[in-house]
Design a protein that fits this description.
- With 391 residues, the protein is mainly beta.
- The protein has two domains: 15-220, Porin (Beta Barrel), CATH 2.40.160.20; 241-384, Porin (Beta Barrel).
- It has four helices and 18 strands.
- The chain has an eight-stranded antiparallel β-barrel. An eight-stranded antiparallel barrel has the order 9-12-13-14-15-16-17-18. A two-stranded antiparallel ribbon has the order 10-11.
Length: 391
């Protein structure tokens, strides 16, 4: 691919983000916030809070086409709000009372002409490793949501951006954190990995991975929840055994045929066993029809039309964590066909289920074994379980 001159240059990001000389000012401002609010605090320490984070890091070149895009360090900030204790009070007691909330995230990728900046709205869950965290806390925090990128791939004006080809992308971040609390203010340091991509809705889609660290100052508005022992069983559980079925579909492109859309279809039959009030484990049979696979094989692997590649079926094991009316699940499977074009038999699924009594809404991320073709799917399902037993 011949490189073309890029005539368009996006406006510069805020100078306090891009200036190395002013990085220390951000830290000083965060610490100043702490000093300012301490005289107005009382003996409370709590869950509902506001948090402000300064983020700095570097793009991880996970592909050779990403390496030329790495210029200056990645910098940004996050503003977050943690919801009140009574939000999700039933399920939170099973997971050591995690905090959860919503945040806005801004990131500048150190290459404004090609990568630009991103703005994202993310939901986060913070899980503590410690049973008591009055003064010190450590754990893991995960962010998931939607991000908007100001710059994307364009064959004429921005051909070097092989990472991002749509303005809107899926974002996920995982960080390990350590926190010191000075009632009701806390200072937090965290380190982790951030990822953005569009799940092959449009190609090219190598995505951006950023190894990052953050410094956070937060202010908590309410006391920690009164800890109660979580019951081993839940009176609302219909049965420990259930069967469920769902169908899902999405849209994708493959590199080399960017103007052609594909609509894969996924159907799954599953059995789950309720191991506790907040956990299910089970086995499933999956059927996938993905019309993009044979076209990709034609372009890249000298495929001649035989054998058929688009339809596959496999068996999988899954686990699900119950968070009220929602469930977070992951599945690991093995396809039952084998031929020279499939590089791996394994496949993976991860997603969210939302329960409306026995109806299920499904948002699913899928990775099939041929060429790691990721896909975002939306679907609907139904579960079958025996009637409630008297307690």
């Amino acid at each position: 691919m011949n490189k073309t001159n890029i005539n368009y240059r996006m406006p510069k990001a805020p100078q306090w983000i891009n200036s190395k000389k002013q990085d220390t000012i951000v830290v000083i401002l965060l610490l100043s916030c702490l000093v300012f609010v301490i005289p107005f605090t009382n003996s409370a320490f709590g869950q509902e809070s506001l948090r402000l984070s300064y983020i700095y890091g570097n793009i991880h070149p996970h592909n050779s086409l990403i390496t030329p895009l790495v210029k200056e360090p990645v910098k940004g900030f996050t503003v977050g709000y943690t919801w009140k204790n009574h939000r999700g009070g039933e399920w939170r007691r099973y997971f050591n009372y995690p905090n959860h909330g919503i945040s806005y995230n801004y990131m500048s990728y150190g290459n404004p002409e090609i990568l630009g900046n991103s703005h994202s709205l993310l939901y986060y869950l913070q899980f503590s490793f410690l049973p008591k965290r009055k003064f010190f806390d450590a754990g893991i925090i995960e962010y998931t949501g939607i991000g908007y990128f100001e710059k994307k791939y364009d064959p004429a004006n921005n051909p070097e951006n092989q990472a991002i080809s749509t303005h809107f992308n899926i974002g996920a971040t995982i960080r390990f954190y350590a926190r010191v609390r000075i009632k009701p203010v806390y200072i937090e340091y965290s380190s982790g990995l951030n990822h953005f991509s569009n799940a092959l809705i449009k190609s090219p889609n190598l995505g951006i991975n950023v190894k990052n660290r953050s410094i956070t100052v937060g202010y908590e508005f309410e006391d920690l929840p009164v800890r109660k022992k979580a019951p081993e069983t839940d009176g609302n559980i219909k049965s420990r055994h259930e069967c469920w079925i769902y169908g899902a579909t999405g849209i994708k492109e493959i590199q080399g045929m960017e103007n052609k859309n594909y609509f894969p279809v996924n159907a799954s039959l599953n059995y789950s066993y309720r191991t506790s009030a907040v956990n299910k484990m089970g086995i499933g049979l999956d059927f996938v029809y993905d019309p993009s696979i044979e076209d990709y094989a034609y372009l890249n692997y000298n495929y001649t039309g035989e054998p058929s590649l688009n339809f596959r079926y496999g068996i999988s094991l899954h686990n699900e964590f119950i968070l009220g009316r929602a469930g977070i699940f992951a599945s690991y499977g093995l396809n039952l066909q084998m031929n020279e074009y499939y590089t791996r038999q394994r496949y993976y699924k991860a997603g969210v289920k939302v329960y409306f009594n026995n109806l299920i809404g499904v948002v699913l991320l899928r990775a099939i074994p041929l060429f790691r073709a990721d896909l975002l799917e939306f679907g609907i399902g139904y579960r079958i379980a025996p009637k409630s037993k008297k307690q």
